[in-house]
Amino acid sequence: MTTPADRTNTNTETRLAVRPAEAARMLGISPRKLWELTNRGEIPAAKAGRVVLYRVTDLDAWLAAQIAKGVRR
């Protein structure tokens, strides 16, 4: 039996990498912020020709690290 979450799933958990727009959407940040983090080396990316790819596991690790740091006020 499928749940509503299953039906809205983008199937990223079975994909190894995503393009920038999807990576930003997955993290809930703007594409500009994603580029900023990538350029600072905080989020690793790979280039395949002209295509920039982000490993889903790297995005997950980055988000987990941000959560572990806690919310700054």
Notes on the protein architecture:
With 73 residues, the chain is α+β, with helices and mostly antiparallel strands. It has a single domain (13-69), classed as Multidrug-efflux Transporter Regulator, Chain: A, Domain 2 (Orthogonal Bundle), CATH 1.10.1660. It contains four helices and three strands. A three-stranded antiparallel β-sheet has the order 1-3-2. A hairpin with a 2-residue loop joins strand 2 and strand 3 (51-55). Helix 2 crosses helix 3 (31-39). It is globular, with a radius of gyration of 14 Å. The model has no long low-confidence stretch (mean pLDDT 86).
Q: Key features?
A:
single chain; 73 residues; alpha+beta; Multidrug-efflux Transporter Regulator, Chain: A, Domain 2; three-stranded antiparallel β-sheet; 4 helices; 3 strands; 14% strand
SSE order and pairing:
Layout lengths: L3 H5 L8 E2 L1 H8 L3 H9 L6 E3 L2 E5 H14 L4
Antiparallel strand pairs: 1-3, 2-3
Helix pairs in contact: 2-3
Provide a quick synopsis of the model:
The protein has helices at 4-8, 20-27, 31-39, 56-69; strands at 17-18, 46-48, 51-55.
